Sequence to fold (1008 residues):
Amino acid sequence: MNLCVDIRINTYYDSVALMLITKEIKKMSNVKQVIVGMGTELNKELAENLNLSNDAVKALTPNDFFIAAVSDEENALESIVKKVDELLNAKTENSCAEKEYKPTTLSAAVNRLQGANMAIISLPGKYAAFEAKKALNNNLNVMLFSDNVTVEEEIELKELGRDKGLLVMGPDCGTAIINGVPLCFANVVRRGDIGIVGASGTGTQEITVIVDKMGGGVSQVIGTGGRDLSSKVSGIMMIEGFKALIKDDATKIIVLISKPPALEVAQKILSMVKGTDKPVVACFIGGNRCEVEQQGAYSCVNLEDAARKAVLLSKGKKIEDFNGFTQSDVEIEEIVKGECKKFSDGQKYLRALYTGGTLADEAMKMLDKEGYRLHSNIPLSPELRLADVHKSIEHTCIDLGDDDFTVGKPHPMIDPAGRIERLPKEACDNEVAIVLMDFVLGYGSNIDPAGEMLESIIEAKKAMKNKNKHLCVVGYICGTEMDPQGYKAQSEKLEKAGVILMPSNAQAVKLCSLILGRLNKI
Amino acid sequence: MLINSWKIKQNIREVCALTDINKLFSKELTVINLGLESFHKDLKAQNVKSMHVSWRPPSEASMKLSVLESDDLSEKIENANKEAIKRLLAAEPIIIGIGKAGIDIPGMTKHTILHAGPPISWDRMSEPLKGAIIGGLIYEKLATNEKEARILAASGEIIFDACHHHSTVGPMAGVVTSSMPVWILQNKAFGNFAYCTLNEGLGKVLRFGAFSQEVIARLNWMEKTLAPVLKEAMEIKGSVDLKSIIAQCLQMGDEGHNRNKAGTSLLFRELAPSIVKTKFSNDEKAEVLTFIDKNDHFFLNVSMPACKCSLDPLENIEYSTVVYTMSRNGTDFGIRIAGTGNEWFTAPCENVTGLYFPGFDEKDANPDIGDSCITETAGIGGFAMATAPAIVQFVGGTPKDAINYTTSMYEITCAENNSFKIPNINFRGTPTGIDLRKVIETRILPVINTGIASNKAGVGQVGAGIVHPPMKCFEDALTSFINKAT
Fold:
C-alpha cells in the first residue's frame, strides 16, 4: 500500500465541492482510500483515522488544500492529481463559461453589482456571522444558510436587521421564495396571495408544494431559521416577517410554520393576529391547537392541512380539518390489502429514511398518536434515541439530514449516498415490512433524487423476495412539475420500481400506519 | 374589548409603517452569493441577477486589521490615504534632460554601484545582479575581467546601495555606475527629481546580467554617442511631458511596463525633430534614431522614473497605508509604505510564470528582479493589463483574462486614475494606489508584468511573464504599521 499526498498551501476550495470530488476519486479503480479537502482539524483527524496522514498533512492550516490517498499502485498520485484537477476545473468551466468576474470580498461585490439587495451566505459557521453583519451594514437582506452560528450572533444579527428594516433569514435557513425567486432549497411554485413565514425548511417546502398542487400560489416565503422561535431569540424574524406580510398588498392569507415555539414567544406572535384582517394559519407542528385558536388564528393537524386551509381561505371556501386521503377509501383499502397479502410471518416494522428533517418529525408525531414508538436520531423522547444511529431497531425513523450524518458530508438532499448505503441494511432485517422515503425536489436538491435511489430500491426489494419476503416501499415526492427535476419524470421512475407514491407526507405516513395496523394485528 | 383590539391594530399598523422589508418586495431581486456556488448557478438558470463571491477564509493577518478599524484611527488612515492619492494623481513627471550618474544622482561616487530592489550585500546577490555589477566594474575600468571584478566586488571597496535610496530606478539588475548617462526627470508639481539609465535593448544586455565585450561596447557607444545626441536634443526641445505620453500609450495597447511599443514611438516623435537639429553628423543622428526605433523598450527607462518621481512625494505620510515602492533585487522582494517611511519589508522573490524564449525553460530562470514594478505601484503595468491584451498571452490568457487582472486590482487600490484611462473598460481610470489593508483583507496580490532573467551571470533575458510579490512583505508591513499607528 502506498500513501500519496499532494499539498497546495494557501489554496482554497469550497468544502462541499471537495467532498463531491472525494466521492468521485474513491471510484477510481486504483484508489483504496482518499481524502480531498482543506486542512481543517476535522479533515486532519479524518486523514489520521483513515491512515492517510503524515507530518506534512498534520502541519496544514485550514487555508491549505490537500489530497491524501492510499493505493496499491506505485505511481497512483499522478493519475489522482490529474483527476482532481479535472474535476476542480470542470467546476470553474461550467460556472464561468464567459469567464465572469468573481470578486473575492463581499464589499467588492457590493461595489460591482448595482442594486444588490440580498446576500445568500453558506460559508462555514465561524465566518458566516461576520460576513452576514457586513452584508447588513451594506443594506443587504440576508439569507444565512450556514449553521454553527452561535445564538448570541444570531440575536445580534437579527436585532441589527430589525433596526435596519432588513430580512435576516437564518442561520440554518434553507428555504425562501422572495419575489417569486426560489432561494437555496426551494420549489418552483405558482405565485399567488398566500404569504408564508417558516422556521422549518422542509416544512415550508411541503406547504408551498401542496399549495401549488391545490391550485393556490404564494406571494412571499420568508425563512427564519429553526432557532428563531426559541425563548432566547424570541421570534425576532418571524415577527418582522409577519409584519411585512400584514403590510404586503399581494398577501391575503398568512401562514406561519414552526415547531411549537417557546410559550412566551408563541403568545407574542399570536397576539399580532388580532392586529390584522388577514386570515392567519399557524402551523405549530404538534403544538397546542387551543392556544392558536384562542388568538384568532387557524390551527392545523399537519403540514398538508395547513396548506389546504390556506388555499381554501384564499379561495373563500369553507375550511375544516383534513387528515384523510386524496384517493377514495376503496382505493386506499385496495392498496393496503394488496400489500398485506405479500408479507410473510414476522414482518412488522417500519423504517422511515428521511432527507427532510421536518418531514421526519411530522411522521413521528403522527405515528406516535397511533401508538407506535419510533426509534430515531431525533426522537420525540430521549429513551427512543438509537444507541447506534447507523443501526435501526424495531420501528425506526431517521433524519439523514441531521448532524449525526452530515458532519463532513453534503446534506442528503444534495447527495443521497448515505441513504443509498442505508437501504440494503434495512432489507437485511427479516422483521422489516415497510420502508418510507421522501424525495425532495426543487432548486438546491440533487438533480435526480429518484434516479439516485432506484438501483438501491430494486436491489432491496429483490433481496427480500429472495428470502420469500416482501418489502413495501412507500414514497413521497415533495416537488412540482415546474421543479428542475420535474415531478412526473421522478414519479415515473419510482413507480416503475414498485414504489407506492402518496400525494403528501402526511398521507404517506398515514398509509404506512394503516398497513402497520393490519400487520401488528395478525 | 373592541376598543382594546382596535388599539392593538393601530399599534401594529404604526409598527408596520416602519418596516422596510416591504420595499424589497417591489424590487428586482439581485443577489450576492457567498459559499456554495450551486446557489448562484440556480439563480443564473432562472435569469436572476446574481454575483458569486470567490470567498476565501480570512488569514491571520486579516484578523489583525480590526486593530485599525476604530473610528478614530480609520479616519486618520482614510485622510492620510486621501492625501497620498492626491499627491500621486497631482504628479506631473517631465523629462528635463540627460545627465551623468556620477554628477547628477545624489550621493554617487566613482566606487558606488546602485542596483535594483531593496539593499543587499554582494554575497547574497543573485547571479544576474552579480553579472551586471561585473559588467559595470569592467565598464568603469575598475576591473579588466570577470575574475578581477568578482574579487573587487567582494572586497568591500565598492559601495552597493539601492537605486531607490538615490531617487533612481533601474530595470532588471538596475545597475548604475558613475559614468553612465541618465535621464533626468522632474515631478513639476513637487519639484523632486528622478533618474534612470538609458535602455540598452533586448537580448544580451547588462541589465539582464550580461557583461561580454559586445555589452561593454554598447554601453560605451551609449555614453559617447547616444547620450550626447539626446542631451543636445533635450536642450533644444526643453522638456517632454510624460503624463500625456503615458496616457496616450495606454490607449494604444501599451501597459507601460512590459509593452512599450507605442510609448517608444511617441517619444521618438517628440525627440526626432530636435535630434535632427543637433550639431552631430548625419550618420550619428541616424544611428541614434535607428537605435531608438529598433528598441521597443526604449520608453521603459522613462516610464519607470516617471512613476518613481510621482510616488516619492508619498514617503512619510503619517497613517497612510498606501504602498509607494515595490521592488526586487533577484533575491528579495521589498515594499515600502507611505506611513512607515523608508522601512523596507522584504521576503524572498517569487518565480515568474510565463513564456520562455526557445531553448530556455523554468530551470534557467532567476527569481523576479528589477525596479520596474514601480509602474504597477503607480497604477500602470500589470494593473493596466486590460488595455494591453497582447501581454496576457505570456501566461496563456485571453483578452478577458487581461480585463479580469485589471478588474481584480481595483479591489486592492484606493483610486481610479484621473489621467490614465482604459478604452475597452469604458475609459475607466487604471487602478491606482495599492492599499496595504486591502491586500491583506482580500489576499489579492498586485499583479506584475515582467521579463525573466537567466539565473547565470552573462546570459541575459530568457523570457517574460507575470509575477506577484510575496504576501509576507505585506504582512510584515502591516505589523510595523500597527506598531507605529497604535
Notes: Chain B touches chain A through 61 residues (CB under 8 Å). The first strand of chain B starts at residue 30 and ends at 34. The domain at 61-89+311-485 of chain B is CATH 3.90.1700.10 (v583 fold). Confidence is low (pLDDT under 50) at residues 1-7, 9-16 of chain B.
